[in-house]
Amino acid sequence: MENLSFEFGPFPPGPLRSEPVIVGVVGSGNMEALCEPTPLGGRMKIVVNTSVRGFGATWEAVLGDFAQRVRVPDLLVTINDAGATPAVVGLRLAQAAAELEAS
């Protein structure tokens, strides 16, 4: 198990969000992402718990792109990864972004 942590931003204030968003499931080849509004000084913090070691630079690039696209301030994202492929990671992050916009 490898635990990674990244911070992005700060981002300008946006609509207030109070409800957490969860997408995906923890299962082989899949991942779960929990997005929680949290005071972080306008930053987005993403914590990754993954069963696959050695891909920190890849995670940082993918998550940095996600953070720049959604630009949600004060958000804690916790990812529980069970060996998701890059396509699944992209799908789950797109789902999370859609849920955040709808909330």
From TrEMBL:
GO terms for cellular component: cytoplasm. InterPro entries: Mal_deCO2ase/Cit_lyase_ACP, Malonate_deCO2ase_dsu. It is found in: Cytoplasm. It comes from the Bacteria. Pfam families: ACP. The keyword Disulfide bond does not apply. Covalently binds the prosthetic group of malonate decarboxylase. The modification O-(phosphoribosyl dephospho-coenzyme A)serine is found at S28. HAMAP family: Malonate_deCO2ase_dsu. NCBIfam families: malonate_delta (TIGR03130). This is Malonate decarboxylase acyl carrier protein. The lineage of its organism: Bacteria, Pseudomonadati, Pseudomonadota, Betaproteobacteria, Nitrosomonadales.
